[in-house]
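Could you please consider the sequence and fold appended to this message?
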Amino acid sequence: MSRVELDRDQVEDVLRFGRVLRENGLEMEGLEEAGAAGFEATVEGRRVVFSGEVTAEQARALREVMGRHPGTSVLDLRSRERIVVASGAGGGTEG
């Protein structure tokens, strides 16, 4: 895994995100990228993109969406109202 540089606010966001996931039955395995648009992490073996606050409701929905779409490689939580599900080829559906 390569090194990712974070500022203090980003560290707090990543830790909060990991805590919310864990409390809802998911494990964040690693942080892949961080930038102005958000973070990309590996969760349960899949890439998850997120930004800002992540709620318990989003984490529960993520767990459900992961179960319904086992072949999906990327899940995007940057919108509070939906989870975008995409294959590695860039196509996707919303859940």
Observations:
- The first helix runs from residue 8 to 23.
- The two ends are 29 Å apart (CA to CA).
- The chain is about 30% helix and 30% strand.
- Helices lie at 8-23, 56-68.
